[in-house]
Write a structure and sequence with these properties.
alpha/beta, 3 domains, four-stranded parallel sheet, three-stranded antiparallel sheet, 22 helices, about 60% helix, globular
Length: about 475
């Protein structure tokens, strides 16, 4: 397949813009998620012991081994690696659009890079952008009719995030050509076999340590429906971006007859639309099953943009890209939740939405708010670590989602102290009977009760003094 001509200067200017935009946000610890800190703690253990263990099920061995090799580096250097992957993801995304013949590839690339959920996860140590870059690269190889390279890259992506393997189904759809069935089946077999072999290799350390139990992932605390809805909408696109997305859906409904006519006359556009919808449905279903983070919606973002490019004139995607940039830096809605909340700006109001205290900040968008949350979480974790070190009596601390953040500065707990995530009532009762003091960190009394569907934590535990 011959490479399609494109504006190389514009292409590299977008990549430079993406890289430069991430740099101010890489020096605030490892990230706003507890899993980010847990990943580095686990990497340090692997480096110290030489024995593999997962940072969280079902395992992310590619990242865990790479970070184990460089776990002594400062946070900003590790975050910089993710920033580079975000540039790669944007580059391969634009190249894919160019290969698909989409003229508005440049504003589409900007829309992808500046979608708030993408931007936020481009400056931490989490696996989301590593995975996205590899998936976009796998699709690029697929378009170049290199199914083995596509399978190889997708297998490595699964080593960062196992859900990447779900892309095998839409990739098979992309390969299939009813006019060249034999060639299609050969391509599918090459891609599938390579991806599975690479996946088995990179996941062998996980299997050898945990057996098939690494599939047994369940969330500790259920996700309320209102939070799940927020994460899939405003949590992903931001306030401004989601409003624009709703406007696009409205426009699509109004001009549905024209869209249908366009697709009927342009078969390849129909293939692209079905391909994008297939990816969206797969990952939307996955998100509905486990809606605990807005970042779980990241695989949907590029294909929503592809769908917009296919179904709407270029002026719509240009407007959408502009709204994504604004959405990252202006207007955010954040939970007013104590120690892990963003510091409100001067132009903000506190209100209640669905019985939850929230702050609507007009001049600080999701990216700025996330940076504030990261700084506030680190400050609280460091102060808490110092308090825990001063405890003299045998004690148990219910840390919940603060566990990894607090353990990082502590490093090693004294023998008379025990820190746990969440514990059932029987455990708390036994510890109390053995004369141990039981404390909980900020908000963790409520989350411990929620985890075990009861109201008992405060009967046995008290806030850390």
């Amino acid at each position: 397949m011959a490479e399609k001509p494109y504006d190389r200067r514009g292409f590299f200017l977008v990549l430079l813009l993406v890289f430069a935009s991430r740099l101010p946000f890489i020096n605030a610890g490892f990230g706003g998620e507890e899993d980010a800190w847990g990943l580095i703690l686990t990497a340090k253990k692997i480096a110290a012991t030489g024995q593999y263990e997962v940072s969280r099920l079902p395992g992310h061995p590619v990242q865990e081994f790479i970070y184990a090799a460089i776990s002594n580096r400062p946070a900003w250097e590790l975050n910089l690696i993710t920033a580079v992957f975000s540039v790669m993801a944007t580059g391969f995304f634009m190249l894919n659009l160019i290969m698909m013949g989409i003229r508005s590839w440049l504003p589409a690339g900007i829309a992808f890079a500046f979608a708030p959920v993408i931007f936020i996860n481009s400056s931490n140590v989490m696996d989301y952008m590593w995975t996205q870059a590899l998936v976009m690269a796998a699709f690029y190889f697929l378009q170049w009719r290199q199914p083995r390279w596509s399978g190889l890259t997708l297998g490595i992506a699964a080593g960062c995030r196992i859900t990447s393997l779900a892309m095998l189904l839409p990739f098979c759809y992309w390969i299939y050509d009813k006019e060249k069935k034999r060639e299609s089946y050969i391509g599918m077999a090459a891609m599938l076999s390579t991806a599975i072999i690479v996946f088995l290799i990179v996941f062998y350390p996980v299997y050898s340590r945990y057996g098939l139990h690494f599939f047994d992932y369940t969330a500790r605390v259920p996700a309320p429906a209102d939070k799940a809805l927020f994460r899939a909408t405003i949590g992903t696109w931001g306030v401004i971006g989601f409003i624009d997305l709703l406007a696009l859906l409205t426009a699509g409904f109004i001009r549905r007859n024209q869209i249908g006519a366009d697709l009927s006359f342009k078969p390849f556009q129909k293939v692209m639309a079905v391909f994008a919808l297939l990816v969206i449905i797969i990952y939307l279903t996955s998100f509905i099953m486990l809606p605990h983070k807005a970042a779980f919606f990241i695989p949907v973002v590029p294909f929503v943009i592809v769908l917009i490019c296919v179904l709407f004139p270029s002026r719509f995607i240009t407007a959408f890209s502009f709204s994504m940039v604004l959405s990252s830096f202006f207007v955010s809605i954040n939970l007013d939740s104590g120690e892990r909340a963003a510091t409100p700006g001067a132009w903000s109001i506190k209100t209640t939405v669905m019985n939850r205290a929230v702050v609507i900040d007009f001049l600080r968008g999701p990216v700025i708010a996330e940076q504030s949350k990261r700084i506030n979480r680190m400050d609280f974790a460091n102060r808490t670590a110092e308090k825990i070190k001063q405890l003299k009596n045998p004690s148990v601390i219910i840390a919940g989602f603060w566990y990894n953040d607090v353990m990082f500065p502590i490093d090693t707990l004294p023998a008379h102290l025990h820190m746990v995530y969440y514990e059932p009532e029987d455990s708390l009762r036994q510890w109390k009977a053995h004369g141990k003091e039981i404390y909980f960190l900020s908000e963790q009394d409520a989350y411990n009760d929620l985890c075990y569907q009861g109201r008992f934590t405060k009967q046995y535990a008290q806030p850390l003094p």
